[in-house]
Amino acid sequence: MEIYIITDTHLGGIKHIERLAGFSEKIIKNLKNVLNDNTVLIHLGDVSFGDDEDWTTQITSLPGKKWLILGNHDKRTLSWYIEKGWDFVGESMSLKMFGKNILFSHIPMITDAFFMDPNGHFLRYNYDINIHGHFHNFGADRVKEMEPEIYKILNKKHYLVCLEDLNYQPIKLKRIIENFNNGKGSSII
Hints:
This protein has helices at residues 23-34, 52-60, 78-83, 140-146, 148-153, 173-181, and strands spanning 2-6, 39-43, 65-69, 88-90, 92-97, 100-105, 112-116, 122-126, 129-132, 158-160, 171-172. It is α/β, with parallel strands linked by helices. The strands form 3 sheets. The protein has a 5-stranded mixed sheet with strand order 4-3-2-1-11. The longest helix has 12 residues, at 23-34.
């Protein structure tokens, strides 16, 4: 089984981000080229920008499993996305793979936290890597200006998947982890 990651497809259009003409069709074509019955696609949110039903159907009709982490532009209910063919839908998700405790989210999340549960037990969340989208190919200065509260939590454990920098192709999870392990992370900071 191979796991592919994609994010911020904004199929159908996008405002304030420069993209090449026909990018939606290119994304669908690129997905068709890699997905098969033995693949899982983890979409880190912001699936479409208009005509949600048609674009969602185009993705969910492709082979393999499709898991959706909701983005800030994914406004439908969880049940709507499940009914349209997504195999999993959630706000975030964690997996242990390739020797890493991985957090998947649309917007970067805190990677290390201590807190007390209602029963007085201390809990610790410690992720080795937070794979996320949301920031496209924005630079650090733009992120800091647009979303200063999110910028404050960013650290070297955050790995930005930027579809524009990937020529509108999904990337293998294994490749992200290899890049991260080799210091080729895609961190904003």
